[in-house]
Amino acid sequence: xxxxxxxxxxxxxxxxxxxxxxxxxxxxxxxxxxxxxxxxxxxxxxxxxxxxxxxxxxxxxxxxxxxxxxxxxxxxxxxxxxxxxxxxxxxxxxxxxxxxxxxxxxxxxxxxxxxxxxxxxxxxxxxxxxxxxxxxxxxxxxxxxxxxxxxxxxxxxx
Length: 158
Known about the structure:
The chain is of the alpha+beta class.
């Protein structure tokens, strides 16, 4: 089994929040990964040596400053009435097609797979948990990482 049914996902409330409704069509495309599948994706694309973004080490691409180019803040866009993502983030990921599979990686055993279009429309819901998650696209080098101080950074996965 690759996915946890959304109705069994313990943190599904982030997608059912009354102030940030997610369409039924989008809910059907939000797929929390099973622990074993999440750990596989994490190991292949994020880190082989740590289980949480707060613990990236020397061997992790995410720990190397050279892989990160720009920083900005997401909190004011999240707090606004608009559903638009921060402009710098949108620009960094502009070449991603809505059908690209993306992974929102909270930690090694907690990853959500969806499509870029679904994430883009519902990005605020994903950021209810903001302690370092990494957004990456399948077969894409561009990445973003979000922090609980309301900032994010953009980079290239090596």
